[in-house]
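User: Sequence recovery, please. Input:
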């Protein structure tokens, strides 16, 4: 039959478990008064503790899809977040938020950029075009139509970025061959693997042009 092992012998001056707990509790009370709770330092009592400084912000004016916009934003705001969170233009997608997938591609002054890597406050006076600004009223941009005609998407998540990048690719004239299109569209990832049809759509639009 198992028996309880005997308590190890302790000297009369060594703390027992009971005295340790009692002492710790008492010390804890003192330390709380001095600003420590459960091991974490806190600011107490002084009343003049510094509040966290507000994040630096700036005012910026830019034109988005033909409309002039002026906002004050946290200096760390990306163009992608400005478009999606402040302007409600959610066509540009956030895939990686790190410049690796191209889902956020927009045109800035005619050049394609990853909007997730572009600071909004650096765009004073810039002209931004997003997927929402491509169509002319009810008439789709030729590349939007070509994506439909060539069945160049499945889930569609990458599609706004692919189309904006394709518009840039056509404008830049990098459409001499399927290989050239692939090279100049290589920053736009499609997890559904629609590359063959995407290249066809860009080719079709370039021929039209
Ligand atoms: Fe910008 Fe992926 S979200 S590159
Ligand atoms: Fe699904 Fe490109 S269509 S990721």
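Assistant: Recovered sequence (209 residues):
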């Amino acid at each position: 039959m198992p028996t309880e092992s005997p308590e190890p012998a302790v000297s009369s001056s060594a703390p027992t478990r009971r005295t340790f707990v009692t002492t710790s509790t008492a010390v804890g009370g003192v330390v709380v008064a001095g600003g420590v709770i459960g091991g974490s330092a806190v600011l107490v009592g002084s009343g003049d503790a510094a509040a966290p400084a507000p994040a630096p912000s700036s005012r910026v004016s830019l034109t988005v899809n033909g409309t002039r916009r002026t906002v004050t934003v946290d200096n760390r705001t990306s163009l992608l977040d400005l478009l999606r969170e402040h302007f409600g233009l959610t066509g540009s997608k956030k895939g990686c938020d790190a410049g690796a997938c191209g889902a956020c591609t927009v045109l800035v002054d005619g050049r394609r950029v990853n909007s997730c890597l572009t600071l909004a406050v650096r765009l004073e006076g810039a002209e931004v075009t997003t997927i929402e600004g491509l169509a002319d009223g009810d008439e789709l941009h030729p590349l939007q139509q070509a994506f439909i005609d060539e069945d160049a998407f499945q889930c569609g998540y990458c599609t706004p970025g692919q189309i904006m990048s394709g518009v840039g690719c056509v404008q830049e004239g990098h459409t001499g061959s399927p290989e050239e299109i692939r090279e100049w569209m290589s920053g736009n990832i499609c997890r559904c693997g629609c590359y063959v049809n995407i290249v066809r759509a860009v080719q079709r639009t370039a021929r039209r042009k």
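The pocket of FE2/S2 (inorganic) cluster (ligand 2) is lined by residues 153-159, 190-192, 194 (CB under 6 Å).
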